[in-house]
Amino acid sequence: MSLPLVELVPPHIRAFEAYVPSRPDPELCRTYHVDHLHRLNNNENPLGPPPAAQRILSGFEPPRAAVYPSGDSYYLRTALGERFGKDPERFLVGNGSCEVIASVIKAFCDKGDNIITADKTFAVYEWVAEFSGFQARLIPLKNNGFDPEGMLAAMDGRTKILFVCNPNNPTGTWWKRDEMERFLRGVDGRAIVVLDEAYREYVDDDDFPDGMEMMERHKNVVVFRTFSKMYALAGLRVGYVCGQKDVIDYIRRTHVVYSVNSLGQPAAAAALENDAEHIAATRAMVARANQLLLPAFEELGLEYVSGAGNFVMVRTPASDSLMYRHLMRRGVMVRTMTGFRFPNWIRVTLVHEPVMREFLAAFREVVELVRPGPGA
Fold first, then answer.
1. Which of 114, 226, 279, 371 could be disulfide-bonded to 135 (CB atoms 3.0-4.6 Å)?
2. pTM for this structure?
3. Full domain range(s) for residue 244
4. What are the residues facing 240 on neighbouring strands?
């Protein structure tokens, strides 16, 4: 007797395509016949975690692996509360920000509801909504940034959440304080506004609208942050959401407990200790990489988009998938951007100068190889 899968699986799941992650680096090295691979595809921080977090990692005792972690990340939430001057009960910690995104959507969306975000941003907002059976209304970017008027115009009585990635991945654009205030007044408390500030620590500007402060005047605002980017704990998967206590209480009802492991919790808490030097060093590394790459892109006559964050996008003279394969054969891994709705663009993580120089050498070589000649 055959299994009636078509009848068992809801239509919105059948229509959804699964995300296929890349294979492990050793497998990729064998495939592309290289002996090393510079990972410039996931916006990872090559400086590694701050010193206090490194001490936690090196001191983890194997017997602790047999003991379940704190189910609600108690000590990490306490550390976050102390850092931001808020009640720890206003924080919810998840297995990376992706789990937190799912918890927020589950908490507020019902059949027939919709969420609103940009068409060219972090795709997980759209994915989670769609495979959960809710409509994702995607508003085109305006000058490579979120369009506040477009998002407000798309709202209706079934809009539950508006996701604003600020700074935006992958363009690095961000709303200034006045623009964010106008947007939040336009929403007027009719829906939850998620400010995803995964790259907030890369912004050093007094005009940045810090969500941790905004939520005190706009009770419908919740903020996502992560330890994966600036704090270099991507392998441990720790993200969190902060908001008003009654908002977080509803999100907590949909959230899976014990999802953040016993190493990630204390490492993340330690990462917050005396982190100014680590943040300054990371920002300096990113600035030097920008100073190297952007003039080179201009010299090559290539359009690029550079803003806040540890990444830059550049338009390529051939398909992004072809550029990816050629760069992989030279030991450099970048992110193709067709999936972000930027066909024929690649995104490059900004890292140490020696690696940036190696990337540029490979990139120039590939551009020369694939760029059409004068008579083409």
1. 114
2. 0.94
3. 51-271
4. 93, 225
